[in-house]
Structures are given as structure tokens and as C-alpha cells.
Design a protein that fits this description.
Three copies of one chain form a homotrimer. By secondary structure, chain A is α/β, with parallel strands linked by helices. Chain A is built from five helices and 40 strands. Chains in contact: A-B, A-C, B-C.
Chain lengths: 353, 353, 353
């Protein structure tokens, strides 16, 4: 979509300086923007960019003085950063509102119940008895298995797969390639060394305001539900095993993994590529460093751990530092042993053993 | 699907106590179940749940005594756990049998050969000369490249992609988002610092009774086959590189990776997020701990390793424990050095060097 | 496709020895090949395979002598390895050329601009104002969001998803299940402990000759572009966060992750499952070992690091070796302490403290 400087100024109550008809179609950083983009300058320290940027339109503070002529069109506002953020939100809202209707071909089973103002993209599959709330956007190539429920205002991006019986809340954002509701990894060892599959009959419940990154996988519970509580944010390529519970507003960075039946409390932060074993509990507010391997419950709220196996952040760091001096330790121990031996050999000292 | 207590009792030879017409549509844990679910109580220790559960129907042991009135309908059987497991299996079999026919639109090339009683979901793609066995279920949005072969009773879940020429055995279960047969990662360095692709002309062979988790990737061989042998179980988000071989009944947990040309023996167990370098061999029955990094062949059957780099489990654990005492070691070495220096400085001892 | 020995010999200027009409349909390793496959023997050391292989046709060096009769048909060439490599390239080129046309049903928006000799597979989705160059292959179930641009000769394999506004160069190869342009993971913490999404308005730019592995995810920039420069090669299941920059000819192995705003220079090599924190810079030619965790910029070109946290390769290895002797260190320190104490207790030495 194209907007003129004048239209933008009207949206954010700004004053145009320059060509009110010049138009932009996207956003850029002031130092990298190309012609046709809108940028902002909030910090006067970076004023130099004003005179070199290729951005067609720039939001600046009312107070911004100019020491040279500039070729871009300016829009003056009280606070350029806030105005820019407001503009981004309005733009996203506008884009979202535009997206409605059912593209063809798509597959919508007759028993599905659809809300109002929804979008269903081409090649999306909607199974039997699926319930979709109002203003939901189902992008192309999404799969919703039988009896899946999707709350109002949720967005499911291209190619995400949600297996049967899973429940997704309101204002959830699920990225492309996610698989939600795949079987938990459960097998009973047999006498001949083979494994017999344990049926995975539960589901996944994703509560409101959750975001789930691209290609993340969340397994259904064996019985009951794998639970992602309100406001949790999961990055890309994360593994959540069966019967796991992720607390409110807990944040998990990319490529981390949580093993079966483990419960994370509220406001936990898990770093990238961290792993957490099964059947433990992580107390509210705990911080797990990137690449850590947590093997025991963290019972104290606001614990901080690092390392694999993970332990207390402060002492782990101290061990890591000491670890770099290890070859030095070895030399120092050898030196001590040598000196003591010299003393014993010299007859100055004797040890009865 | 809805079943009455009476229908369920008939399936498992149980006796109904309570309303035979009450119906359930899914399974739950006794402590979490909602109305309309079926639960079980096997361990008398948890008897309390009987009086508080919302489950509509509960399987209990014949021997279970009741100390209070309960609102749920009971089905009495000799062993409630076994009866519940049998019920799950029967239910899954029933669900599977129901799934037949070809949904439209789907793309089935004319040269494909289809078995009997198969299911092909909407937006599935079946390439030239593909061969599909009997009772195979191809879910929506699956891709089967040219000349792919699928054995009897195999299930391929939504959005899995199988590139051309791959061979999948019988009773295999492939989860959503898997990519099987993608190019191996092979490049020849060029004098100018760039890389030239080495064509990857082999395929992937997945033998019978294998399960492959969601979004797992298995690369085709450069020449020949990447092999996943009978009964192997792979969890989600695993990487299997080109020309790898995974032995019978080997189990690999989520987010682990195996580099090119490495061979894992039979009944190996690989923990989550573990990595194994290329061109090595892991002996039968070996155990690789979660997050380990295996850099050398494990030649002895039933080896157990941990750590990155990985070594012998017992001595690695001893090193991990000692590692936590490192800052303490440093202090003790300093103390010894200081004392020896004091002794030398005091003239009580002399060392000729 | 089937080729006769005679046709193959003509392609690579070889001489047929045996049946010129025998035909092959694929390539195999000489030691594993089945009937109907073509293999090669370059190293005379492996001559034995010539007499046992099931390959129907074998490329051999002109100089190869035979000590027994063989059943396969031979094609003699000056250098069997080079001839085999040339044949693979010609075969792949031929396969590629065959793939043209638009399969139905596919979804191509009216405002999309399509190049010549392209292939669009069934169930592919091409959004508004998408621009596709010449000879591009879009496989089934691919998603191209609005305003995506694809350069000449690029191949996008089944089920890859490219979100709106991303730019893909020429001769790029994108594997199945990739998600390119998903939202960066950016949230502003709120006073109540919840997180507010920061709109992610940038895009991803993938330059020429890049290869991206299966199920890899590359997030769009917050503002501006996440950049994958010319000739970079990314393996499977890799995470590239928002505003990251990957230099020319940099190679990243499977399951590695790069956090937000980090810049990798040219010809960097990143091992499998390695992680790199955000907002740092990795100098040209650096090598990051598998499973490393890089927490600080590598400012010196051609740095080599390992470990988590990662440091200098040589001293890290020395620490790793010393680490295995840790339990031994402990014993040796104890021994020294004991001996010194014995000496002090015996009255031979005194320390004034």
C-alpha cells in the first residue's frame, strides 16, 4: 500500500515540511532506507543521517533543528519514536482488517462452524466440527484437524499444522510450519528389544495472547493436555514434549527443548538451545541461560542457572573461569609435588608412612 | 465420536455401575477430566479422586471398594489399567479404519499406483510413478515426489514432504512437517572461496515400523541410501545427514543431530539435543546422554557417554562434580604454594635448582 | 528416466565394453548398487568390487586392467571420477529443464509477474505483486507472500514458506519446510509481567547462489533487512534471528542458531548445534566448532573457538583434556596437603601465621 506524506501526517497529527504528495510504501532505518520508504529520527545525535538518507519521508521531533538543506520530506511530531511506533501498529491493524474472505480452492468441512470476518487462505484444510472465532485469519496451506477450536482474533500463518482436538485461545499468533498436537514420544520396550507405541490420546491447549514461532513443535499429551498458558512467547524451532506445562508470560528462545511432563512456572525465561529434562518443575521467575541443560527442579523462585548440567549461575561462572586456568593448575600441582620430593630426597625432611 | 458406558463395557467385558446411557467423547486423567470424558483408577492409593473427579465414566478394578457415594458411572474390570490401554488401542484402530477415500482437490499423477483402502487428503501431491501400498493414509498437504514408494499400513501426517525416489516401509508413522530426502550438505570449496554444490543423487530408505517425529529432517545420500532400519524411533526436530545409517530399534530424542556417514548400531539410545560427528560408528546398545557431543567412535557395545566432548559416563560425571570444586582447588593450590614459600623464605629448607 | 550404455557413453565420450543396449535408471555406489544402476570405479584399489557388483553399467578408467570376466557393461573414459561427476551434473540439468509449466490447482494472484520457462507446482500459492524471474521452479505447496521477489534460475522446494516482502536472488536453492520472513522475536516487557509484541516490519534478503536447508527458519528484521549474502550455505533446522547478517560464502551446519543483530563475516564456518548470542560480530574466516556457545565478538580474522562458553580453540582443548584429570587433581592436592600437615605436625617445620 502507498501512503502520501499528507495522509501519514493526518494519522499521527504531524506537520508536513516539504512535498505533501510524496508517497512511501514501507518502513526503513534512516541509515539504510531507500527511496519510497519512511524512516524516523528520534535521537539528535544521529542528525547526520538526515542529510544523507534516501528515505522519502522522515518523522522528526518538533524540536529538531536543521543545519543544512535536506531532500526528504519531514513530518514533525512531539516525539518521533512514539509516533513511529504508533504508525507501525496502525499499519499492521489496517493490513489485518483487509484480510478477509475465503480463497479458493480451500477445504472446509460442512460441520465446521466459522466466525465472522474471518480469512481462509487457499489450500487451507479445516476438518470436521472445527470451531473458528471471529476475525480469525487462517493463512494458505494451514491444516486444522477435526474438532480443533480457534479463539477470536487469532492468526495462523502459512503451513502451520494443528492436529485434531487441540484448543487455541484468543489473539494467539502461530507462525508458519508449526506442528501442534503431534504424538508424544512414548514407547513401551518389548522383550525382543523393539518398542510398542503408547497411544497419545490427549491434546494441546494454547491459551490467549500466546505467540509460537516458526517450525516449533508441541506434542499432545498422552492423556490430558499439554498446556501453554496465557501470554507465553515461544520462538522458532522449539520442542515442547507431551504433558508439559508452560506458565503465564514465560518466554522461551529459539531451539530450546522441554522434555515430557515438566512444568515451567510463570515469567520464566529460557535461553536459546537450552534443554530441560522431563518430570521436573521450574519455579516462577527463573532464568535458564542459553545452552544450559537443566537436570533437576529449580524450587526457589527467581533461580538463575547455567551450564550443562546446569547449576547456580554465580558459582557456575566461577567454575567456568577456573576451568580456563586448568592447564595452569596442573603445572602448579606438579611444581609443588616436585619441590616436596626434592626436599624429601635431600634428607632435610622425612615422612613416616 | 460418542460412546455410551454400556457400549464401552461391551468392548472390554466390564460391568456398568450407574447410568449405562451416559456418554463420553474422549479420554482424561482422573484428576483433570471434564464431564464427557472417560478416566481410569488403577492404583487404590488415588481413591480420593473417585469422589471429586468430573469424569462421566471411570474404569475401576473389580476389587475397588467405595467408602462414599460417587456421581460418575463406573465400569468394573479385572485390571483397570490394562482395560484402559486396550480401549485406547481399539479406539485408535477404529479411527484409522474410518479414514478412507480421496478428498478433493488432491493431485495424483496418472502413473501413480495406489493400493486398496487408502486415504488421500485434500491438497496432497502424489508424483509420477509413486507406489502406495494398502491401507495407507496420506493426510492433507503431504508431498510425495516422483517414484516414492510407501509400504502397507503406513501413515503420513499433514504437510510431511518426501522427495523423489525415497522408499518408505510398512506400518511407518511420519509426522507433520517432516522433510525426507532433502539434499545432503555437500560442497566442494573453490579457489575463490566460494562453494560448488556436490549433486546429491541417492535417496532415503525408511524400513518397517519406524516412527519419525514432527519437523524432523532426513537428507538423501550423495550416492546410495541414507538408511533408517526397522523399528527405529525418531522424535521431533531431529537432523539426520546424508549417508547416515540408524540401526534397528534405535531411539533418538528430540533435537538431536547425526552428521554425515555416521552409523548407529542397534538399540542405541540418543538423548535430546545430542550431536554426533560424521564418519564414526556407534556400537549396539550404546547410550548417549542428552546434549552430549560425540566426537569419536564408540566401539564397545553398550557404551555410555556424556558431555561435550563426550566421554565415559562414570568418569565424566566424576569430572563434572570435581568441576564444581574448581574455585576451591585454586584456593587450596595457592595455600600450599604460600606455605612452601614461607618455609623456604624462613631458611628452614633449601632447594637447589 | 532410462538411459542405455550407448547413450551414456555418447554424453561423456566413452567407449562401451559389453552390451550397448543395457539400460540404467539411477546411480549407485559400486559396492551397494543394484541392477539397473550406474556406478564408477576410479581407485584401482577397489577393483574387487568390479567382479561382485550388481551395477548394470560401470564407468572405469581407460587404464583399468581386468583380471577376471565381469558381467556388467563397462564404459571406459580417461578419468572415471570426473566423468561420473560430469554425468551427475548433466543429469540434474536435464531433470531441471524438464520441469516447466503450471500444475493445477495452484493459486497465482493476477498482479503477480511471472518469468519465462517457470514451473509452478500444484497447491503453490503466489501472492499479490510477486515477481518471479526466468527458469524459476516453484514446487508444490510453496507459499510466496505478497510482493516477494524471486531471481532467475532459483528453485524453491515443496512446502517452503516465504512471507511477504522478502527478496530472493538468482540461482538460490531453498529446501522443503523452510520459513523465511517470520516475525523476529521481539517483545517489550510490561509492568504487569506480560509482554507486548514489537511489530516486525522489515524483511529478509537472500542474495545469489545461496542454499538454505530443510525446515530452517530465517526471521524478518524489525526494521530493515535480515541479510544472507552471496554464496552462503545453510544446512537444515538452523535458526537465523531478526537483523542478522551472514557474510559471503559463510557455511553453517545443521541445528546451529544465530541470535538477533549478530553479523557473521565472509567465509566463516559454523559447526552443527553451535549458538551465537545477539549483537556481536564474527570476523571473516573464523571457525566455530560444533556445539560451541559464542558469547563475545571474534574480532581477529580466522579465529577458531570451541566450548560453551566458547574460547580460543587451542587453550579450550587443553582445558578439556585437563578437565578429564580433575578427579586426579583433587587427589594430588589432598596428598600434598596431607604430607605438609604431617611435616608440620612432626615438628620438623613451623609456620608463623
Amino acid at each position: 500500500m502507498q501512503f502520501s506524506a499528507e495522509q501519514i501526517a493526518a494519522l499521527i497529527n504531524g506537520k508536513v515540511e516539504g512535498d505533501p504528495n510524496i508517497s512511501v510504501d514501507s518502513f526503513g532505518k534512516i541509515e539504510e532506507a531507500r527511496q519510497g520508504q519512511l524512516a524516523f529520527l528520534a535521537n539528535p545525535k544521529y542528525e547526520d543521517h538526515l542529510y544523507t538518507t534516501k528515505a522519502s519521508v522522515i518523522l522528526v521531533n518538533d524540536s529538531q533543528a536543521l543545519r543544512e538543506k535536506i531532500s526528504s520530506t519531514l513530518i514533525r511530531v512531539p516525539d518521533a519514536y512514539l509516533a513511529f511506533a504508533a504508525l507501525l501498529s496502525k499499519y499492521q491493524e489496517m493490513m489485518k482488517q483487509q484480510l478477509t474472505g475465503i480463497q479458493e480452492p480451500s477445504y472446509i468441512s460442512k460441520s465446521a462452524i466459522l466466525g465472522e470476518h474471518i480469512f481462509v487462505g487457499a489450500f487451507a484444510f479445516i476438518g470436521e466440527q472445527v470451531k473458528i472465532g471471529n476475525n480469525v485469519k487462517i493463512y494458505p496451506q494451514v491444516y486444522l484437524g477435526d474438532r480443533v477450536t480457534i479463539g477470536d482474533d487469532t492468526i495462523i500463518l502459512p503451513g502451520a499444522k494443528i492436529y485434531s482436538d487441540c484448543v487455541i485461545g484468543k489473539e494467539v499468533l502461530i507462525h508458519g510450519g508449526c506442528v501442534i498436537g503431534s504424538d508424544g514420544f512414548g514407547f513401551a520396550p518389548q522383550p525382543d528389544g523393539s518398542f510398542k507405541k503408547i497411544p497419545q490420546m490427549g491434546n494441546v491447549v494454547v491459551e490467549d495472547f500466546v505467540e509460537i514461532g516458526a517450525n516449533t513443535t508441541i506434542d499432545r499429551a498422552t492423556i490430558g493436555s499439554t498446556l501453554i498458558h496465557t501470554g507465553a512467547k515461544l520462538d522458532n524451532l522449539i520442542q515442547i514434549a507431551h504433558n508439559v506445562e508452560i506458565g503465564n508470560n514465560t518466554v522461551i528462545a529459539a531451539q530450546a527443548g522441554v522434555s515430557g511432563s515438566t512444568k515451567l512456572g510463570k515469567n520464566v525465561m529460557v535461553g536459546g538451545q537450552a534443554g530441560i529434562v522431563g518430570h521436573i518443575h521450574i519455579a516462577d521467575g527463573s532464568k535458564i541461560n542459553a545452552q544450559s541443560g537443566v537436570t533437576k527442579s529449580l524450587k526457589t523462585p527467581n533461580s538463575a542457572v547455567t551450564g550443562s548440567p546446569a547449576y547456580d549461575y554465580t558459582s557456575a561462572l566461577r567454575s567456568q573461569v577456573a576451568n580456563r586456568h586448568l592447564p595452569d593448575f596442573e603445572k602448579r600441582i606438579q611444581e609443588l609435588e616436585k619441590k616436596l620430593q626434592v626436599l624429601l630426597d635431600s634428607g632435610q625432611l622425612t615422612i613416616d608412612s
